[in-house]
Amino acid sequence: MSSHRPDLLGSLQASTGQSAALLRGRWLDAAARGMLFRFAAPYAAIFPLSPIYMTNRFRSVAIAAALLVPTVAFSQASTRPFSQGSRIASVGVLTGGDYEGLGLGGSFEVGVKEFTPTLSLGVGAFAGYVRGDLGFGLGNVTQIPVMAIGNVHLAIPSQPKLDLYGGLSLGLLRTSVSFDDGDTAGLFGDETLSNTDLGLGIQVGGRYAFTPRAMGFVQLGVNDIPLLYAGLSFKF
Known about the structure:
Elements: H1 5-44, H2 51-74, E1 87-96, E2 99-116, E3 119-133, E4 139-156, E5 159-179, H3 182-188, E6 192-209, E7 214-223, E8 228-235
Antiparallel strand pairs: 1-2, 1-8, 2-3, 3-4, 4-5, 5-6, 6-7, 7-8
């Protein structure tokens, strides 16, 4: 019996040591949890940390991020056809409205103000030359508009190549009428009649980017600008 006593004592000591280590580990774990609870308790009413809340919270954050990333990327000027700092030169054909015949026009516009990532303001100038026939062999009419322009541009995130705009044109309109018939000219006292008036126009249009720097455009106008102005625009 005495020969087995040391082994028994050793086993008891080992068991006691393991139990003590286990108890110490559980005590430390409980203490850590208690400290965490004591630290987080004041904020629990403000930031609930239940699993359901955290799942819903994570889902909301993920959805917001998914919606925000395209908007942030689209808000960069390089991804839009027109924004603050853009410089666009356009050339195209002119016809219709109060203009007789067919002509050519050119315009230049600079982005000067960005109201939102999708709404910006551009200002510039427009000039054109349109020549048409009066009919009945009477002669021809020449119209030359020179105007300042201001447009509000709308960008559509789902259509990053499209630039829609609308605005006003204000300037001068030079009209010259030349008569071919000598008798008709005599009625007016001169062979050519010319007049320069203040011109005001309202325009709406759109541009579509084929490349980062080349776009096609169509513009419709009323009052003292041509009904149709269409051609190519170049961004630089």
